[in-house]
């Protein structure tokens, strides 16, 4: 089966009723990007820039970032590349970004929040993104957005950065989106996402914040399962309430599990972003069923009592169809 999946890796993933679902790659370096493109990824759905520059002692200059983002765009050409702005803080320290002192770093000044009082690093990054977006298909993605004010802040930083790049405004072709990884953003997505091009659900953080259980903590694994119906209900809520024309991506770790691909599409997700090596099998899984079958599966999952029951539903459903 894996062999078949690899053979078809570069073929677009169409469901049985011919709906195209783009399966993109999560990227943490240029090497990972090349691996993703080699596995047939339809672009990069999440470039974790804090990972790309994790080993840098000093902040990269605008020029240095232009070079890196352009190289990533070339790897995935003609597909688009989604650059997430620095998601520093909590589990993602950056040597060139002073860490905040606090008892709850996951609830602290992480992601976009960290730059409101000291925007220099973010403005440099956005200037580089604007410059590369002039002649490459790029999307910019803001992490840890929770309020409408955050979206206004993000947009105003982007406008300032475009001006610094000598442009009249953000380049036409630059897609603008926000991570939906805080419950408040999921609940209010109908207003927050107005005028944006896409949102991207981050189930790693969304599950952590919905279930009040720190991500990655082995002791809390039983309480932080992204398949809990409470998390799935928020994903469906997002898909049902985004303003028309706003695409719903999904870039949490669940998107790398081929058993969950149909469920996510059934919840209303338009495109997935997975670990590079998982792309061929996620594509293969999507071909197995139709969107209405996935919809029914998702409806059953939403009504399930817990994550274990959801897991029982998806395993046989997808394997049975494959
Ligand atoms: C997420 O939170 O689900 C996500 C994709 O972002 P990260 O894992 O980088 O926090
Ligand atoms: Mg996150």
Descriptive overview:
The protein has 322 residues and is an alpha/beta fold. The protein is 44% helix and 12% strand. It has 14 helices and 8 strands. The chain has helices spanning 2-7, 30-38, 49-52, 62-76, 120-133, 148-164, 183-187, 189-192, 203-211, 229-241, 258-267, 279-286, 291-303, 307-321, and strands at residues 22-27, 44-48, 81-84, 138-142, 175-180, 198-201, 247-250, 271-275. It has an 8-stranded parallel β-barrel with strand order 1-2-3-4-5-6-7-8, surrounded by 6 helices. β7 (247-250), α11 and β8 (271-275) form a beta-alpha-beta unit. α11 (258-267) packs across α14. The longest helix has 17 residues, at 148-164. It starts with a helix and ends with a helix. 51% of the residues are buried. The model is unreliable at 318-322 (pLDDT under 50). Residues 181, 202, 204-205 line the site of magnesium ion.
């Amino acid at each position: 089966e894996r062999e078949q999946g690899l053979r078809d890796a570069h073929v677009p993933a169409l469901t049985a009723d011919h709906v195209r679902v783009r399966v993109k790659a999560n990227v943490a370096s240029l090497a990972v990007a090349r691996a993703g493109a080699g596995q047939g990824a339809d672009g990069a759905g999440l470039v974790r820039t804090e990972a790309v520059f994790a080993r840098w002692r000093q902040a990269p200059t605008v020029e240095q970032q232009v070079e890196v983002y352009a190289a990533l765009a070339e790897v995935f050409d003609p597909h688009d590349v989604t650059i997430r702005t620095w998601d520093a803080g909590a589990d993602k320290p950056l040597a060139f970004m002073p860490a905040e002192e606090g008892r709850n770093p996951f609830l602290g000044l992480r992601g976009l929040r960290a730059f409101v009082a000291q925007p220099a690093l973010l403005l440099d990054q956005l200037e580089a993104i604007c410059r590369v977006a002039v002649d490459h298909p790029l999307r910019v993605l803001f992490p840890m957005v929770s309020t409408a004010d955050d979206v206004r802040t993000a947009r105003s930083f982007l406008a300032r950065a475009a001006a610094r790049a000598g442009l009249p405004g953000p380049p036409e072709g630059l897609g603008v989106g926000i991570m939906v990884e805080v419950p408040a953003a999921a609940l209010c997505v109908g207003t927050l996402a107005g005028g944006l091009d896409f949102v991207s659900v981050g189930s790693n953080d969304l599950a952590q914040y919905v279930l009040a259980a720190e991500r990655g903590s082995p002791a809390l694994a039983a309480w932080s399962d992204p398949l809990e119906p409470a998390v799935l209900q928020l994903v469906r809520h997002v898909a049902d309430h985004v303003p028309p024309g706003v695409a719903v991506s999904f870039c949490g770790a669940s998107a790398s599990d081929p058993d969950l691909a149909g469920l996510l599409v059934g919840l209303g997700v338009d495109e997935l972003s997975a670990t590079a090596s998982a792309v061929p099998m996620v594509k293969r899984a999507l071909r197995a069923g139709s969107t209405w079958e996935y919809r029914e599966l998702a409806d059953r999952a939403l009504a399930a009592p817990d994550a274990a029951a959801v897991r029982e539903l998806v395993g046989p459903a997808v394997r049975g169809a494959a």
